[in-house]
């Protein structure tokens, strides 16, 4: 296609249109493509355009047409809504302009195309760059804005992820005993409150190490720290993943066993723990010897469990176990709530599994 200028020089119109409208196509009078802009050729990839009928490459969605050249020329100047045929099915906008009389090809038309609002998807699907658009195309500016917004959102997302990770790490640190890695008293209070609010049954075991001070005094605090870490490891091994094991004092621990409502089962767990903790713990070339005493209480034995009361009564049962000679478990019963002189006589009937379902308060 040649366009004469006033100087009688001939400018290659196709090359000019490739720069100004890189998504254009020139059709002959039969509707076959005789020239395609570089971007249009790029998005079709290996599909040959030259010599192919325009209607075989595009489906005109609106206005409705039979795809003939006659109908296409009849819609000259009107906005066309098209969709590529083939795998991608990309939607495009276009406008057809008849070629001037005397221009080649005779009776042909030029159709300029654009991606419209699907430009962002097109850039991604066809790996387009700014060089695939006319220099004055505002779509290029929009792409820069989209890219800048995407980069900002990506940076914001990464920052949020880091902040969330830092917050989780801070919360984890706030709820963790640094020496043993167990939960601390703050975490225990949170767990008990959540369980009470959810009205979920649980068993609570208050466990205290016997003769731990002797380890510190005779072998040093390094040995004591080693013993505490070994105790923590054993208690984690003897409980389930959704149970809570907390260190609430120097050598005091609390275990919260979710959904446990059987006193005999609690007794078995406590006795198994005490048995393992009674085994000598090696440290350097020596052995640390401790035992453990435990007291327990069941939330299901109370119409309206109060966490402070449960802790107090588990503590009462614990000291009953110590008064009976240590190295044993006592389940809380009503008789343990009496005056101190009763604590020494309450144990036999409640420390054995046969008495686990005994005198409880509802």
Could you explain the architecture of this structure?
The structure is a single chain. With 362 residues, this protein is α+β, with helices and mostly antiparallel strands. It is 40% helix and 21% strand. The strands form 4 sheets. Strands 4-3-8-7-6-5 form a 6-stranded antiparallel sheet. Strands 10-11-9-14-15 form a 5-stranded mixed sheet, with helices on both faces. Helix 8 (212-219) packs antiparallel against helix 9 (221-237).
Provide a quick synopsis of the model.
The chain has twelve helices and 15 strands.
What characterizes the major β-sheet?
6 strands, antiparallel
Mean pLDDT: 85
Helix-and-strand structural type: alpha+beta
How far apart are the termini? 99 Å
Q: Please list the strands of the largest sheet in the order they lie side by side.
A: 4-3-8-7-6-5
Q: How many β strands by DSSP? A: 15
Q: Could you say which overall geometry the principal axes of the C-alpha atoms support?
A: rod-shaped
Strand content: 15-25%
> Approximately how much helix is present in the residues?
40-55%
User: What count of helical segments does DSSP give?
Assistant: 12
Q: Could you state the order of secondary-structure elements as H and E?
A: EEHEEHHEHEEEHHHEHHEEHEEEHEH
Low-confidence stretches: 1-11, 339-352, 354-362
Q: From the alpha-carbon coordinates, what is the Rg to the nearest angstrom?
A: 41 Å
């Amino acid at each position: 296609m040649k366009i004469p200028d006033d100087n009688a020089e001939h400018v290659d119109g196709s090359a000019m249109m490739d720069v100004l409208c890189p998504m254009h196509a020139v059709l002959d009078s039969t509707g076959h493509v005789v020239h395609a802009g570089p971007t249009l050729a790029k998005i079709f990839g290996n599909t040959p355009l030259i010599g192919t009928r325009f209607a075989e490459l595009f489906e005109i969605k609106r206005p409705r047409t039979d795809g003939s050249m006659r109908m296409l020329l009849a819609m000259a100047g009107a906005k066309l809504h098209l969709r590529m045929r083939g795998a991608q099915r990309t939607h495009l906008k276009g406008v057809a302009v008849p070629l001037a009389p005397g221009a080649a090809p005779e009776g042909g038309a030029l159709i300029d195309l654009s991606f419209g609002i699907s430009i962002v998807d097109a850039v991604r699907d066809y790996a387009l760059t700014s060089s695939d658009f006319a220099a004055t195309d505002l779509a290029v500016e929009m792409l820069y804005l989209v890219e800048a917004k995407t980069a900002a959102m990506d940076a914001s997302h990464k920052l949020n992820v880091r902040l969330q990770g830092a917050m989780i790490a801070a919360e984890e640190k706030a709820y963790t005993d640094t020496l043993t890695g167990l939960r601390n008293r703050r975490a225990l209070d949170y767990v008990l409150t959540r369980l009470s609010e959810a009205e979920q049954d649980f068993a609570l075991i208050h466990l205290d190490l016997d003769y731990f001070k002797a380890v510190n005094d005779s072998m040093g605090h390094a040995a004591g720290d080693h013993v505490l870490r070994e105790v923590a490891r054993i208690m984690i091994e003897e409980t389930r993943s959704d149970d809570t094991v907390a260190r609430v004092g120097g050598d005091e621990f609390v275990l919260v066993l979710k959904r446990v409502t059987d006193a005999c089962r609690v007794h078995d767990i406590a006795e198994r723990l005490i048995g393992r903790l009674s085994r000598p713990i090696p440290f350097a070339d020596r052995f640390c010897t401790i035992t453990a005493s435990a007291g327990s209480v069941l939330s299901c034995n109370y119409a309206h469990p109060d966490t402070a009361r449960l802790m107090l009564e588990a503590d009462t049962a614990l000291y009953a176990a110590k008064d009976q000679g240590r190295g044993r478990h006592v389940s809380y019963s009503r008789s343990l709530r009496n005056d101190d002189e009763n604590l020494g006589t309450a144990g036999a009937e409640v420390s054995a599994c046969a008495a686990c379902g005994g005198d409880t308060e509802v």
